[in-house]
Amino acid sequence: MRTFRAVVILFALSFAAKTALPEIEYNTDNLRDPFKSYLPKSSISEKTSSTILKELSKVRLSGIIWGEGAPLAIISGKIYKVGDKILGIKIVDITKQGVLLNYKESNYILKPK
Asked: Residue 85 is part of a domain; what is its CATH number?
């Protein structure tokens, strides 16, 4: 029985070696680039530090809600929590002293007026 298996395996291997596999040519002419963005370019320009300070001077921190849950800030009549964005600037932390904002690794503090 073992010799029969060995003969069958050798026959299969010799047959497979003689059979040529078809050559496959890979063509990427009609495929899109997965790393290229096809979204329209944003018309929003990058904000500078002076622009941010000018925009922040227009907003008003009316109050801070401090209780059992996450702290909230009332800024220009709207309620914000940590992680929200105001004028495209992320709220990083809300403390009893004010709101810590972050834009492009620069921190800004919004204090009650």
From this structure: 2.30.30
Mean pLDDT by 10 residues, the chain (113 residues): 74 64 80 80 63 79 88 92 89 91 84 81
Positive or negative: CA dihedral 42, 44, 45, 47: negative
- Residue 90, SS3 per DSSP: strand
Beta-carbon count within 10 A of 99 CB = 23
Q: Which DSSP helix (H) or strand (E) runs through 92?
A: strand 89-94
Residue 3's Cβ-count burial label (10 Å; 0-12, 13-18, 19+) is exposed
The domain tally of the chain equals 1
For the entire predicted model, the pTM comes to 0.54
The closest of 61, 46, 54 to 100, measured between CA atoms, is 61
